[in-house]
Write a structure and sequence with these properties.
Layout (H helix, E strand, L loop, with lengths): L2 H15 L4 E3 L6 E8 L2 H13 L5 E4 L7 E2 L2 E2 L3 H9 L3 E4 L12 H19 L5 E3 L7 H7 L5 E3 L9 E3 L6 E2 L7 H14 L2 E6 L13 H13 L3 E2 L2 H8 L8
Parallel strand pairs: 2-3, 2-11, 2-12, 3-6, 7-8, 10-11
Antiparallel strand pairs: 1-9, 4-5
Helix pairs in contact: 2-7, 6-7
Length: 253
């Protein structure tokens, strides 16, 4: 293992150990949630359609300042996409406004960006928004502590399963990147989660035949959703899971 990997593991362990807001999952598992970051239009037009095919819905973490732009993920969302996904029953959550990293700006600047992002989501949904994902997965102990009072949840990119105790300030999530050659690792994760009766969160970005390095093919995404659906797991949005636990959008715990 490289020194960088070792340092990453130590950093992850420290982040998990401090400023925890632990709540029990209870006997609600196994649960699987599919989430999208940023988000590119294909996350909804393709990924959302696949979820709906199986009667499921996803959570879309949006950085509102990225609207009407394009990057390596392809075209990013436009306003109509937000209205459409909400009407279809998907969840819209926050990813800051400007997609800033908590490691590259001051704590106060990051908090302001988080608050601005939340307000933008609330403008579209007309209701309280307090589910959040850290851009780039970047999180520090200072930001984890500072954001806790006004967020119901903050999703990371630290791999693993949630439960039997869930840290609301650092939800674990697992990436779905690439093509069907990684399908067995996805299947293994879903099976492991079924055995543990936990909460498995997946995340990706674009969903298209030739995805970016941060996205996946429609074939892989459909494989993952089908495996989750046939495993006996509930497929729920992040907000629905927290609601079942008793963590409402307006109650950050």
């Amino acid at each position: 293992m490289s020194l960088q990997s070792q340092l990453g593991r130590v950093r992850g362990s420290v982040l998990c150990a401090f400023h925890r807001r632990a709540v029990p999952l209870g006997n609600r598992g196994p649960i699987v949630s599919f989430t999208f970051d940023d988000f590119p239009r294909t996350a909804y037009s393709v990924g959302g359609a696949i979820l709906e095919k199986f009667g499921a819905r996803g959570t879309y973490y949006v950085a509102a300042g990225l609207a009407d732009t394009a990057n390596e993920l392809g075209e990013l969302f436009v306003e109509n996409d937000l209205h459409s996904l909400l009407e279809a029953g998907h969840e819209l959550a926050s990813h800051t406004f400007h997609h800033s990293s908590s490691r590259s700006v001051s704590l106060s600047a990051f908090q302001s960006d988080v608050q601005e992002g939340i307000k933008a989501v609330e403008h579209f949904t007309g209701s309280r928004c307090s589910n959040f994902a850290y851009p780039y997965g970047d999180v520090t102990l200072a930001t984890k502590k500072a954001l806790a009072p006004f967020l119901a949840s903050a999703r990371s990119i630290l791999a693993g399963l949630n439960g039997p105790k869930i840290d609301l300030s650092l939800l674990r999530a697992n990436r779905i990147y690439g093509d069907v050659d990684i399908s067995q690792s996805v299947k293994h994760l879903i099976g492991q989660n079924v055995q543990r009766k936990g909460w498995l969160i997946f995340y990706t970005h674009d969903v298209r035949p030739n995805p970016s390095e941060y996205g996946c093919t429609p074939a892989l995404f459909e494989f993952a959703v089908r495996e989750a659906a046939t495993s006996g797991s509930q497929i729920l949005t992040v907000g629905r899971v927290l609601s079942q636990i008793g963590i409402e959008a307006g109650n950050a715990g």
